[in-house]
Structure formats: C-alpha cells, structure tokens
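Translate structure to sequence.
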C-alpha cells in the first residue's frame, strides 16, 4: 500500500493514521520525500510493508502467488526482489506451509517455483496452484538476517541455519521435506 499526501497535510493526518494502521496491522513504515516537478509541491510517500513475527524474527511481506488465465504468476515487492541470502516462507490463508532459503535473489527463487522441474519446485507449485484455484491466498514473506562478524575478520551469514531452525521449531511445515533434527 502506498500513501501519498502533501507535506503540509501530513502534519495533521499522519500521527492519527499511522497509529491506527500500526495498531491494526503491525506495519513497517518507510518514508520518503518526493518532489513533484509539475506542481512544485513536496510529497511524503510512505510504503507500508506488512510485517509478521515468526519465532521472534520480523518477516516482511515480499509478494504473493496468483492465478492469471489458469497460470501461476508471481507478484513481488521491488524492495526485496533483488535480496540474496534470505529465508522465506509461504503462507496459504495465513498458515505457514513452507520455509525455504536462497542464495539467489528472492525473485529468481520464486520464479523457479513457477517454471523449474525440480522435485521441490513441482511439489510446492502443485500445492499452491491447487489451493489458489480453490480461492485461497498464497503470500510470501522474507527475512534477511544480519551477517555475523567474528574478530573483525570472519563473516558468517546465518540464513541456512535460521531456515533449518524454523523448519524444526514449526514442526516441519506441510511442504517441507528436509530432515532437520
């Protein structure tokens, strides 16, 4: 969701609006000033990224799978599409059905679910498409962990460990097959 309003009006409306939105849907708010050259006005643009806490981690809504002309399609947020080394989850009607990780960009990994013939891709794609055709909603949330630095020399990205811990702690979601124990 994007909110655009003049800088003047934001002083009055913003505190009430943001409080109401945050309380009702737990949103992250990124603010930017944008200059409209035609009207010579400054606008405050706010993009709201829905956040979901899972095992204490703040996952950001990154996209969703849709059915268009009976085909599985991807809608993904530009703000996270090019992130690498992320943990992601697929939720169908609000229930976690898959936890994954990728060293590719998030966009590339999600596209593989649509086009690639690998066993995991086919299993996940088949289930998601079947549920979407029945009217369900499939959302994608992602989490990019901070890199751990040891002695200012060794850099560790914990995304694979986080994925495995989530699979274990969530009781091996429906579409996960990794044996993590």
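Result:
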């Amino acid at each position: 969701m994007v909110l655009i309003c003049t800088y003047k009006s934001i002083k009055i409306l913003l505190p009430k609006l943001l409080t109401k939105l945050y309380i009702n849907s737990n949103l992250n708010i990124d603010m930017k000033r944008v200059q409209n050259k035609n009207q010579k006005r400054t606008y405050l643009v706010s993009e709201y990224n829905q956040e979901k806490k899972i095992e204490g981690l703040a996952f950001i809504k990154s996209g969703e799978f849709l059915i268009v002309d009976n085909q599985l399609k991807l809608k993904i947020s530009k703000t996270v599409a090019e992130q690498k080394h992320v943990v992601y989850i697929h939720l169908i009607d609000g229930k976690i059905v898959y936890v994954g990780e990728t060293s590719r960009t998030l966009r590339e990994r999600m596209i593989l679910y649509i086009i690639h013939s690998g066993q995991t891709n086919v299993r996940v794609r088949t289930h998601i498409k079947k549920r979407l055709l029945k009217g369900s909603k499939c959302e994608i949330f992602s989490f990019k962990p901070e890199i751990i630095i040891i002695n200012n020399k060794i850099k560790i990205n914990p995304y694979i460990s986080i994925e495995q811990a989530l699979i274990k702690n969530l009781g091996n979601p429906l579409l996960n097959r990794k044996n993590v124990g």
